[in-house]
Design a protein that fits this description.
The protein is of the alpha/beta class. It contains ten helices and five strands. It is globular, with a radius of gyration of 15 Å. It starts with a strand and ends with a helix.
């Protein structure tokens, strides 16, 4: 089973678009299990306009909430001071999985977080890759892919137009 560690950008976007069932479909299709850092859960609750009860239910259904020791977060913060605590907690979880040879991937969209994950040799993808994967696995169709990509923009998710053009011309990118 692959552990998929999500960051606030993806989780908040999928919660706001009310499409966490898409993630359920991916989990079933590929044997994924979603891990949500506790700080990311809290950030998502503050960011989205959805009730705390609804978010708690959706997150509980989606996967496990994992809390990392504050001292470990502070230690990472000293080294990677540009990252926020949710990203640091996600990195900490990914490092634990990497060290124990567990199958995992981390979902990051922030450039600095992606650079850091790459520097640490962590397996990483982004939110648009998740949508592309859902399309490629026939969990969503082309019209739904476009709808979700537009939905990301509606909820304030930023990405370059060339990225979307690449996905739409070759969804397996």
């Amino acid at each position: 089973m692959t552990k998929v560690i999500v960051d606030n950008a993806m989780l908040s976007a999928f919660l706001e678009m009310k499409c966490t069932t898409l993630l359920d479909g991916l989990a079933k299709k590929f044997g994924w299990s979603f891990d949500i850092p506790s700080i990311v859960k809290n950030e998502s609750m503050q960011r989205s306009g959805i009730s705390r009860r609804s978010i708690t239910y959706r997150i509980k259904k989606l996967g496990n909430v994992i809390a990392i020791d504050k001292q470990r977060i502070q230690s990472l913060k000293a080294r990677f001071f540009k990252l926020h605590e949710g990203e640091l907690e996600a990195i900490s979880i990914a490092l634990d999985y990497k060290e124990s040879n567990r199958d995992y991937m981390i979902i990051f969209d922030d450039d600095e977080a992606r650079r850091t994950a790459k520097e640490l040799g962590l397996r990483m993808h982004g939110t648009i890759w998740i949508l592309s994967r859902a399309y490629k696995a026939m969990i969503i169709n082309y019209v739904e892919l476009v709808y979700y990509l537009e939905g990301l923009r509606r909820v304030g998710f930023w990405y370059e137009d060339k990225t979307v053009e690449a996905v739409l011309s070759d969804p397996g990118f």
